[in-house]
Amino acid sequence: MSSPSKQTLSPTSDTWKTPPTTPEKPAPDTAPISTKENDYKIQHIQTSVENLFNLVSDKFPHIQLKQTTIETSQANLEANQAFLEENHANLEVSQATLAVNQENLKANQATLEANQAKLEAELATVKAFLAEHATVFARRSSVSSDSNTNADTSTDTSTPSPDETGEQTSLNPAPQDDTKKPTAIETPEQIRSNSAASPQTPRDPESISLTITVRFISDKSVKYTLIHHAPATKCESLYDTRHEIVTICSRENAPLCKDIDLVRLIRDWTKVTFKLEEDGFAADHTRAPTTIDQSCAFPESIYEAWFFRNVLRGNKAVYEVDVKINIQA
Length: 329
Fold this sequence. Notes:
Keywords: Coiled coil. By secondary structure, the protein is α+β, with helices and mostly antiparallel strands. 48% of the residues lie in helices and 12% in strands.
């Protein structure tokens, strides 16, 4: 039996020159991870982070406190910002209102300046009028003071009463001549020397009487005329005289005056004209008779002054009071 022969490899043989082949490694497994496994990993990571955060919070509590403070500060900052925005809106509204008020103030100031200029002009006019009539006013004041402080008499300036036929329709005095020169003002000594017989003390009203003539006027003519004699004690004031007129008309002439509202007529000064007789005592500067018509008021003070001048300090025993009442509707 023959043995196999051995082959000898020479360095120059082809077999020697061929590099040995390396066995190929198996390809890595690239199959995707399952969804369940992925969720598990994510949950594990979250748990780890939370555990780490809790660990850090336990170890460093001031970190959690700072985070809470930051959150609170953030909320306060947002609230302050909203408050500032609201205030800014209110400020804009206030600025608009202020602008409107400033315009109104300018308009009011202009009106005030115009009114002030008007008042200054009127004041200047009044001052000029007073300066122009200062002499007249001083004269009247001097005569009035002399007449009230001295018991003096002057000429009787009473006018006759109108006739009873109804022809006269006005109780005003006859027009006077405007060209008549005013009488010279007498000194108190001259007045006392010219009226030595004048009473120096007030008289007793019981000794004086008034002749009250009431004329009812309609259509500019006298319809009814009533004459009544009353003691001065019943007519010391304008109110008393008015009451006396209503009384005598209602009592003595009830059928005549039944359709006339005397109270209303006597109180309505636009319907009544008074004429008060002056005897001139201590009143030579006063127009006589004193007549008040519907163009001017008839205050109580005028009647009281007349009563004091004539009834209390006059010379006559009887004074005439003419009353004209307009009964026309």
